[in-house]
Each structure stands twice: as structure tokens, then as C-alpha cells.
Amino acid sequence: MTVTTQPGTELDRTRFFIDGHWVEPRGTDTHVAVEAATEVPLGTAALGTAADIDAAVRAARRALDEGTWGRTTTTERAAVMRRFADALAARAEATSTLVSRENGMPIGLSNAFNGAAPAGLLQMYADLIEALPLESVRPSPSGSTVVRREPVGVVGAITPWNYPQVLAMMKVAPALAAGCTVVLKPSPETALDGYVLGDAAIEAGLPPGVLNIVMAGREAGAALVSHPLVDKIAFTGSTAAGRLIGAECGRLIRRCTLELGGKSAAVVLDDADLDTFVAGLGDASFQNNGQTCTVQSRILAPRSCYDEIVDAVAGFARSMTVGDPLDPAVTCGPMASQAQLDRVLGYIDLGRNSAARLVCGGGRPAGLDRGWFVEPTVFADVDNAERIAQEEIFGPVITITPYDGDDEAVRLANDTEYGLGGSVWTTDEERGLTVARRVRTGTIGVNYYLQDLGAPFGGMKASGIGRELGPEALDNYLEFKSIYASSAQLAR
Ligand code: NAD
């Protein structure tokens, strides 16, 4: 087949990583990746069809059933994973730069989450699996029972565009450690950086079929979810897609973890230190230009110091530097796509037409006509029932809602269908922990919010099912099996 490419784009990648090789697509669909800050084409990626997914799943199945990966010792698997980590680390700078160009992520953040974190996760799960006994023997009425942890099987991993490398590795690393084989389907918007994982896997000597990568859109994603030879789906993306995927996995009795959307609250208590709060706002509420599932885009402010908090948040938003995400001085890059820009501007219009008060921002920044930029925007006096306070905007748009007393703050924080991130700001850490314990959410910070890759991460309510990260995530990729043996000897 012939894939149409943009002239002069050395980043074009038109084959898929299947069974240890770069193979030609079965179909002819392509996606032109466009640099978010300039709207200039970056490269063309082939997009897979159900037939490409089928080839990738069959390769993963063969590697699981006939290959050695699931039966190697954990020490051998860990050694391959460490080589994979080294190969990714060697590419870290190029990878994080590419992601920033694709999706607008400020380069410092991209260095951490797309450059360093994937290699770090491979190292972490290599260490964890080596330390985990996969078999134990316990006495039973008939003699002994051998309790084993076995790989769950072939994993279909589906990822979004906002943190493409780390979100992929949050699935791939524990899956590989557990002895599973994987078909990864990255999002079209960040297809180009997805190929880096294939290059690194080849360099590391990952056995054929253990990791397969097909860049594709929703339909091919749905084909992966329902493929009869897949055992588990690990999905990160919108709640709307998660509902469809969860329903299909339920029908098939297929294991699945769902990491979905959020609308998290930053609860500022009446004793908060405003300097600490403002210093944490970038990570807590504006991280990745607001294109982060955990952003605390609803700020709950006590009436006793409401005006000071509104001024502080607006001051922070005005002080942000909007521009090219590759410039280390920039704190707010562009939206990842035209569609994402339109979505965010649509929500800003909703806010302007509501009873809320626009305090700063409210449109596209002057002088940045090319690139999908949005001004950091703050609405105050927002009723928590308003759509801008209830729906995930996924851009640098903040709402501020007043409250009276900690009980009302907790009630408002929980007055959402989501439960993913959150934060509490106070000079009394014990009081902060008490409030944090009452918020129905998967992660929450006290005077600080930054994801801890060593602790379980995920959502309550419509933010998802299951947890990734931390040692706990290994359980997503392991099945228990009990073998009833008659020999009492085993019980030693
Ligand atoms: P999306 O749901 O549109 O797409 C995510 C991925 O799923 C893409 O690869 C897409 O091709 C695929 N997909 C979409 N519909 C599918 C279907 N029916 N079957 C199979 N695959 C399908 O999400 P997006 O716009 O790419 O990402 C933004 C969303 O992701 C936000 O809602 C954000 O909150 C969420 N997110 C959640 C987390 C988390 O850890 N909870 C992390 C990052 C992003």
C-alpha cells in the first residue's frame, strides 16, 4: 500500500510493531500529526484497522501460549525490562520533545512524565516482580495446596493523548513483569511518539510478540476490546468511552481496569497559607495546560477569605506564560488539537453566559494566532451545579465556588459524578487530613498535589474502576490459581 505523507517530515512512521517486527498496515488510513503550537504538520502515521489489531493480538497470543515469556523466571524477565528501560532512557530527551510538539505539554513536565517516568516504571516493576514470591504452599485438608500467581494473559492497553508515554507504561510495565503479553493501541493524536516504544523494545531484545503496537482510532480500539483472544483490557481515557468499554468487558466477562475523567476540587480551608496555595496551583490546577485528568479545576473557597483567594488565583493565572511548550519559561502551552481548542472555548462561552463572573482570561491570547492556545481563565461565584463546574473541560479554565464551614466544603467537593484527584490547603495538617479522608476520590494532596508513581492511582465513582501504579497494580495482571495437592510433603 502507499501511505500519503506530508513533504519533508522525517518523523513519518507508517508501519506497526507486530511480532517483533515493523510490518505494513493492512489498510490505508493515515493520521497527519500537527504540531500543537504551530499547526504545522509533524509527520504522518498509519492508522490500524481491525485486521491489524487481529494480527497483533494473534502475535501476543502466540507469544503467551507458545513462547517463553510467561514461563521465564522473574529474574530473566526483570533483566529484559531493565534493558528496555535503558533503551527508553537513551531516547528520553527526543521522546519528551516529540510529545510536547504533538500535544502542547510544557517541556519540563514532558521530560518528567514522557522522558524519565517510563524507564523508571520499568525499573520499579522489574524490582517488584523479582521480590514477589509467585508460588506458596499451605496446608490443606487433603495435604497441601499450592497457591500460584499466573499471568492474566493477553492484555489490550488503550491510551489517550495527554500523557501518552507514562500512561502506556503504567500498563505495559506491570503487565510485562507479570508475564503477560500486550497489544498497545495509542491515540492517533500522539501516534508518532508511540513508535519509540517499538524501537526501544527491539533494542532491548524483547521476545517477538510480547509487546505489539498498533496506532489506531476508536473502531480499531473497539475491535481490541472485543477480540476473542484478549484476556484483559487496561483503558485510560474519557468516561464516555470507558462506559462503552466497561459494558463490553462485562458482556464478555473480561477483566478490565478503567482510568477515566475527573472534575476534582481544591478545597482551600480558612486557615490556608495563600503563598503555599499559589505555589502549588501550577501542579494542582493547571498541570499540562489543564489537559490532565486530575486537575483541580474547581476551587472551593471559604467566604471568610473569598475575595483574597479569587485575587490570588486570578493573579496566578495572569502570571502564567502562554506559548511554545518547548520554551522552558512557558507554563501554559497550547491545547492538543483544534477539536480540544473548540471544546475549551465552548465551555468558556458557557461560563460567560452563566451567572458566573469572569475574572480573567476568557478567550484566545493576543498575538498567538497560530497554535491552539487558550488564555488561563478564571470564573468566580460559580454555582457548583453549573455545567462549567460539573463537566470536564480539559483546559486551563478554573471555577471558584464559595462555601461556609468544612462540612459544606466536603459536600461540594463530593457533589460531582467524578472522584479522581483533589487537594486540601491548610496550615493545620491534621485538619487537612481529616477533610482529605472525607472526600470520595482516588488521590488527594494536602498542601501539595503531584502524582506519586509509587502509590495506587485511580478513580472512584465515574472516574473509573481499579488502580494503576504502586506495587498494587501488579495484581491487575496476575490471576491466582490454587492447586490441591495430596502430598503433605509439600507443606514444608
Ligand atoms: P478518549 O476516550 O476519546 O480516547 C482515549 C483512547 O481510547 C484513544 O486511544 C481512543 O482512540 C480510544 N477509544 C475511544 N473510544 C473507544 C472505544 N469505544 N473503544 C475502544 N477504544 C476507544 O479520551 P481522550 O480524549 O484521548 O483523552 C482525554 C480523556 O482521558 C479525559 O477524559 C481524561 O480525563 C482521561 N484521562 C484519564 C486519566 C486517568 O488516569 N484517570 C489519565 C489521562 C486521561
Q: Topology, please?
A:
Elements: E1 16-18, E2 21-23, E3 30-34, E4 41-46, H1 50-65, H2 74-90, H3 92-103, H4 107-131, E5 135-140, E6 143-151, E7 154-158, H5 164-178, E8 181-185, H6 191-204, E9 211-213, H7 218-226, E10 232-236, H8 239-252, E11 255-259, E12 265-268, H9 274-285, E13 298-302, H10 306-319, H11 338-352, E14 357-360, E15 377-380, H12 387-390, E16 397-403, H13 405-414, E17 423-425, H14 429-438, E18 445-446, E19 464-465, E20 478-485
Parallel strand pairs: 7-8, 7-10, 8-9, 10-11, 12-13, 12-17, 13-16, 15-16, 17-18
Antiparallel strand pairs: 1-2, 3-4, 5-6, 6-20, 11-19, 14-15
Helix pairs in contact: 1-7, 2-4, 2-5, 2-6, 3-4, 4-5, 9-10
The site of nicotinamide-adenine-dinucleotide has 30 residues, from helix 7 and helix 8.
Could you characterize the architecture of this molecule?
The protein is built from 14 helices and 20 strands. It has helices at residues 50-65, 74-90, 92-103, 107-131, 164-178, 191-204, 218-226, 239-252, 274-285, 306-319, 338-352, 387-390, 405-414, 429-438, and strands spanning 16-18, 21-23, 30-34, 41-46, 135-140, 143-151, 154-158, 181-185, 211-213, 232-236, 255-259, 265-268, 298-302, 357-360, 377-380, 397-403, 423-425, 445-446, 464-465, 478-485. The termini are far apart. The radius of gyration is 23 Å and the shape is globular. The protein is an alpha/beta fold. The protein has 2 domains: 2-260 and 461-485, Aldehyde Dehydrogenase, Chain A, domain 1, CATH 3.40.605; 265-446, Aldehyde Dehydrogenase, Chain A, domain 2. The chain has a 7-stranded mixed beta sheet, sandwiched between helices. Bound molecules: nicotinamide-adenine-dinucleotide. Nicotinamide-adenine-dinucleotide is lined by residues 158-163, 167, 185, 187, 217-218, 221-222, 225, 236-238, 241, 244-245, 259-262, 293, 392, 394, 420, 459, 464.
